[in-house]
TrEMBL record:
Family stated for the protein in its record: Belongs to the iron/manganese superoxide dismutase family.
Domain Manganese/iron superoxide dismutase N-terminal: start-end pairs: 86-167
UniProt protein name: superoxide dismutase
UniProt-listed PANTHER family: SUPEROXIDE DISMUTASE 2, SUPEROXIDE DISMUTASE [MN], MITOCHONDRIAL
Organism per entry: Bacillus gobiensis
Length: 288
């Protein structure tokens, strides 16, 4: 019998997807009806004692990947280069209080609306300054603005991933190919989770813990970054990120970063890293 909390999580996720289907502009009605049929089958499975948690999560994964695939097709058509100085703060996708009690509304508001906005502003300023330097051929401040570009750009992009890595009723356990590669790369999911958590707890100062797909090594790896961009690697694609800057937790957890890290797992939504992995896996360089 599937535990009630798992039933609730998947049922809530299904209802959120139904809402997304209702406002979707890239699917016709027949395609929406097919997704609804699949969701109805999932709801039936959740109430059927003959199905396991794994069965239901696999069904949900298939539905999610199909929907994300349709959205990525639309995104490839819609996505255009961002002109210098035109980056925008992305929406959270849920309310500021949605992750309570694990992350408070006050923290989420300050973190998103203030701190992330400052990275967007800093990135835009650096890009415009470098554009002006190219046009005037005055590179006197090139070192400063290249540093600003790296710091604020990495801060903006990592936070954009961070918000989508979390949700109030998301998928709390990975499945499918990503889970298989976690097992291959780290031995087991529990071993991965322990290493990721310890990496986050031991970042010196402010920074991040990051699960990445390494196209050159053709496997997963756990990295850390001080600030947003120091002590990390090139040639990798972030899948799951955890912000351990003090502004991400101090108002609620004070100096207890380990407690924040441990509680963070309660709001991770693995459907987003799985979607990112599906697209990242298409990138594979010659191994050395």
């Amino acid at each position: 019998m599937i535990p009630k909390d798992y039933q609730f999580q998947l049922y809530s996720w299904g209802k959120e997807l139904e809402t997304a289907l209702g406002i979707s502009r890239h699917l016709d009605q027949d395609e929406k009806d097919e997704f609804q049929k699949d969701l109805d089958l999932l709801y039936e499975a959740l109430a059927d004692d003959n199905y396991t948690i794994q069965d239901c999560y696999l069904m949900a994964t298939d539905i999610h990947q199909a929907f994300e695939g349709s959205r990525s097709t639309e995104a490839r058509v819609k996505n255009k280069p961002v002109p210098p100085g035109k980056h925008k703060l992305p929406p959270l996708g849920y309310s500021y209080q949605a992750l309570e009690p694990y992350i408070s509304r006050e923290i989420m508001y300050l973190h998103h609306a203030k701190h992330h906005q400052s990275y967007v502003d800093g990135l835009n300023k650096a890009e415009l300054a470098l554009k002006n330097a190219r046009e005037t051929k005055n590179f006197a401040l090139i070192k400063h603005y290249e540093r600003e570009l790296a710091f604020h750009g990495a801060g903006h992009y990592l936070h954009t991933i961070f918000w989508k890595n979390m949700s109030p009723h998301g998928k709390r356990y990975p499945t499918g190919e990503l889970l298989q590669l976690i097992d291959q790369s780290f031995g087991s999911f529990s071993a991965f989770k322990e290493q990721f958590s310890e990496a986050a707890k031991n970042v010196e100062g402010a920074g991040w813990a990051i699960l990445v797909w390494a196209p050159r090594a053709n496997r997963l790896e756990i990295l850390t970054a001080e600030k947003h961009q120091n002590l990390s690697q090139w040639d990798v694609i972030p899948l799951l990120v955890l912000d351990v800057w003090e502004h991400a937790y101090y108002l609620q957890y004070k100096n207890e970063r380990p407690k924040y890290v441990d509680n963070w797992w309660n709001v991770v939504d693995w459907s987003d890293p799985e979607s990112r992995f599906k697209q990242a896996k298409a990138v594979s360089w010659e191994s050395y």
